[in-house]
Every structure is written in C-alpha cells, then in structure tokens.
Amino acid sequence: MVDEKTPKSAPESNANQTTPAPKADSSKGDSSQGDSSKGDAKPAAKAPAKKKEKPPAVEDKPFPEFIQEHFFPSLQSALQEEGIDDIQLSLDQRPLTVIGIDDSEPYWHVQGQWQGGDRQFNIAFTKDDIKSSKVFYFADKGSQPSTIEQFMGDERRVNLDLMVMYTVQRLNAQKWLTRN
C-alpha cells in the first residue's frame, strides 16, 4: 500500500502529464489543483456572457424612431384603456404655441388630439432626446394653450413606461380621463 501512495503523490506534481492525477484531484475537492478546474470553467463562463448580450434598450433608439415606434403605440393603448378611442398622435418640430411666449426656436412636439380636436395636449422636448427637459401644455375646445409646465422634471431615469404613465397621469389630473 505504501507503493500505491507514492505514485499518487508523484503524479500530483506532474498533473498535466498523467491522466490518473486529475481523477485523484477531483476526489480531493477544493485543493490548489482546483485552479485547473476553474480554468476549465472560464471558457464556460465566457459562453454565457455572449448569451447575456442584450439588444439596446428601446429608449436608446434615435428620438423620432423611439417616439413613433414605441411611445405612440404604448400611449395609444394606455389611453384606449381609459376610454379614449379617437386619439390622434403626431410628432413634429415647431416653436411653442403658448399664449405669451414669443420663442421662435423649434422644439420636438408630441401632440395628441381627440374629440375632433376639442382636446389637445403637447409634450415639447428641448432636444431630440427623451432625457432632455420637457414641458407639457394643453388646450380645450379649440382654444390656444395658455399654461406651460415642466414635465417629468424630477425623474432621474426616463423610460417608455414612465413616459406613458406620466402622460396618462397628467391628462387624468386635468379631469380629461375620469371624473372625481
């Protein structure tokens, strides 16, 4: 039996040269030779890393694409759940059209209209980026908007779901969706 132990300790020092040594190492559990098994795990860890690559978030898409392909359908769906079936949404660049503001600089505007244009809201973006400063203004029964207010100003993160939620919340605060 002494002779059997001696050959086992010899292959441990030459673990890369003989096949019996890895079997002996695997039975010992976590020894210094366990590093070779970790070396084997590293290629396996790299394979899942490739699977973990996520496509870019919809919020990272170019501004017009995000608004038209993601924000509009989500907002339209949310407003339909609130009973607004005739919503018309548009995106364009133009100056603010609020009474008392003489700013000719064009801003990106999301405009929503329903009830034949009697109700209208606008979300103006100061830049072509959803994370930029935004303002909200509205008009009822064809009048020109006279009040402008900050929109989502306290939010550090801006994403699709929050934009939809804040828009619906703001319209509800105007009592345009539900009554108290």
In words, what does this structure look like?
With about 180 residues, the protein is of the alpha+beta class. The protein folds into two domains: about 1-50, no CATH class; about 60-175, no CATH class. It is about 40% helix and about 20% strand. The protein is built from five helices and five strands. The protein has helices at about 1-15, 20-30, 35-50, 65-80, 160-175, and strands at about 90-95, 105-115, 120-125, 135-140, 150. It has a five-stranded antiparallel β-sheet, covered by helices on one side. A hairpin with a 7-residue loop joins strand 4 (about 135-140) and strand 5 (about 150). Helix 4 packs across helix 5. The longest helix has 19 residues, at about 65-80. The chain starts with a helix and ends in a 7-residue tail after the last helix. Mean pLDDT is about 75; it is low at about 10-20 and about 25-30.
Radius of gyration: 31 Å
Q: What's the number of domains? A: 2
Unreliable sequence segments? 9-19, 24-32
- Percent of residues in helical segments? 40-55%
Give a quick account of the main beta sheet: strands, pairing sense, barrel closure.
Answer: 5 strands, antiparallel
